[in-house]
Design goal:
By secondary structure, this protein is mainly β. The chain is built from three helices and 38 strands. It has two domains: 119 residues, Roll (Ubiquitin-like (UB roll)); 358 residues, YVTN repeat-like/Quinoprotein amine dehydrogenase (Methylamine Dehydrogenase, Chain H, 7 Propeller). Strands 10-11-12-13-20-17 form a six-stranded mixed sheet, with no helix packed on it. Strands 2-1-4-3 form a four-stranded mixed sheet, covered by helices on one side. It has a four-stranded antiparallel sheet with strand order 5-38-37-36, with no helix packed on it. The longest helix is centred in the first third of the chain and has 12 residues. The two termini are 19 Å apart. It is found in: Nucleus, Nucleolus.
Length: 503
């Protein structure tokens, strides 16, 4: 993974002094080592420094022939848990992971070698492993969404190319690994479902689904009635409903409303306001139906017109839209949670919108089609995008609503190409501010730390000829006491099976 890892064997030669400091976010004080400066080879890299830390901790250090430096932290099973060596990551400067020799990294950042170089370290995150898979569904799994209840129960919803939605309950098995228990399925559209969003609103699970048949439907789900159609989203009579390609829910500051943002194939952004009292729904013309008794009964379906419609928001298909995941993590319920919207499009641009004023606050033009988009749970305005050129890009699009000016330096950071085909989905970790996952038409799932341009790990989740299409990163509390949060990445693709990657 690192260019300098071949130079990590301790050899006599030039040395530098370093002071090792445990990262402040690490909750295990037993991993702290003395901060007094020590001399190490000047070209020592991550693997060598891990050996130094393990030695100072009194943990056994693997031999020189113990595998590659892949960050797995998997060592001899004969070692006990208390003295088994760990794999660590290191930061020398600028919050970037060490991927060179220490001296080279220090010189690159203008650090003086006359003084001890302060190096922050923390344990490497676990490598995702395929821990199971769901049952085969009739067609490609194109999108995934989830909603949790107050009882920490997580429901997972998958949308498929045959127009069906499949509902699963997430459970942890005896080994504290996630497994999906299928509850039911229902036909939601006549064409492929291409976008989904789910949320829990007033103790009710709400699911929005959009299909290539140009339908945008809102559903509810409960254990007694399964998936039920709640309403149909429509546009003005003079317009034709376009195929919606991206969706996202948010709650407003008022407890009686729920907003849904949609982006469609024509580049239009629409906002749908779902009132808890249902007064915003209009009944269509009643259709007369014969009842079993021969009497005529009237039935109607509920429709909801968009409250805001921003036509030509983008020149081409809107492939990603988000109110900002940080509101979900922080349980934000104020005016800022629904005033700004971030969108990405095939027209190569990322835009930030003031929804109430229907005004574009910021436009960032890239060089490639934006195929997918997700926003950080930990930092407002930090966006990850995936592209057909096999790359992932990071953007900082924070904007001051009062001045309509960027509130910080705009960032456009491109990871080194690692995927071999179109990047179809990216998802941020809800629990780790620095990690995100990606999947691609090359059939792999990769986990990244944004402080490095190379992936932390790569998992072959799908067969050689299969495509990865969608991801869901779930960070639910463990069902077992005294256990950490349970991290699972769910992946769907062209093999019609939801894969489960355990972290």
């Amino acid at each position: 993974m690192s260019d300098s890892d071949d130079n990590d064997r301790p050899e006599e030669g030039p040395q530098v002094r370093v002071s090792l400091k445990l990262a402040s976010g690490v909750g295990d004080p037993s991993l702290e080592v003395p901060s007094a400066p020590i001399a190490v080879p000047s070209d020592i890299g991550r693997k060598g420094l891990s050996a130094v830390v393990n030695h100072l901790l009194g943990r056994s250090v693997p031999g020189d022939d113990d595998g590659d430096d892949d960050g797995n932290g998997n060592d001899d099973d004969s070692s006990t848990a208390s003295n088994r060596p760990l794999s660590f990551e290191f930061i020398v400067a600028n919050n970037r992971l060490l991927r060179k020799g220490v001296e080279k990294e220090a010189r690159q950042h203008g650090l003086s070698l006359e003084e001890a170089i302060v190096i922050t370290y923390f344990p490497t995150s676990g490598v995702p492993e395929l821990s199971g898979e769901g049952e085969t569904v009739p067609d490609w799994v194109s999108c995934l969404a989830s909603a949790s209840t107050n009882h920490s129960e997580t429901m997972v919803f998958s949308g498929c190319y045959d127009g069906t939605i499949h509902i699963y309950r997430k459970r942890n098995n005896d080994d504290n690994e996630s497994c999906l228990i299928k509850i039911s399925s229902a036909t939601a559209a006549t064409g492929p479902i291409k976008a989904m969003a789910a949320t829990t609103y007033k103790d009710q699970k709400m699911i929005a689904s959009a299909s290539l048949d140009h339908s945008l439907n809102l559903h509810t789900h409960d254990s007694n009635n399964g998936l039920q159609l709640y309403g149909v989203c429509t546009v003005a009579e003079s317009d034709v409903m376009q195929a919606v390609s991206s969706l996202d829910f948010t709650a407003t500051s008022s407890s009686s409303h729920l907003l849904l943002a949609s982006g469609d194939a024509n580049g239009t952004i629409s906002i749908w306001n779902f009132d808890a009292g249902e007064q915003d729904f209009v009944a269509t013309e009643a259709k007369k139906q014969k009842s079993s008794s021969g009497q005529k009964a009237a039935s109607s379906k509920r429709e909801l017109n968009a409250t805001i419609c921003m036509e030509r928001a983008h020149a081409q298909t809107i492939s990603g839209i988000s109110w900002g995941n940080h509101h979900h993590r922080n349980q934000t319920d104020n005016i800022t949670s629904h005033s700004q919207l971030i969108s990405g499009s095939w027209d190569h641009s990322i835009k930030v919108w003031d929804v109430e004023k229907q005004n574009c606050l910021l436009t960032l033009n890239g060089s490639r089609v934006v195929a997918c988009l997700d926003t950080s749970y930990h930092s407002e305005g930090v966006v990850a995008t995936g592209h057909p050129d096999c790359t992932i890009r990071l953007w900082d699009v924070r904007v001051d609503s009062n001045t309509s000016k960027p509130s910080s330096v705009i960032m456009d950071h491109t990871f080194r190409p690692s995927h071999k085909a179109w990047v179809s989905d990216v998802k941020w970790s809800p629990s780790n501010a620095y990690q995100l996952a990606s999947t691609s038409h090359d059939g792999t799932v990769k986990v990244w730390d944004i402080r490095s341009s190379n992936p932390l790990s790569t998992v072959r989740a799908f067969g050689k000829e299969e495509k990865g299409l969608c991801l869901l990163w779930d960070s639910s509390p463990s069902q077992q006491r005294k256990q950490p949060k349970h991290e699972t990445i769910f992946a769907g693709g062209s093999d019609c099976i939801i894969k489960q990657l355990q972290l």
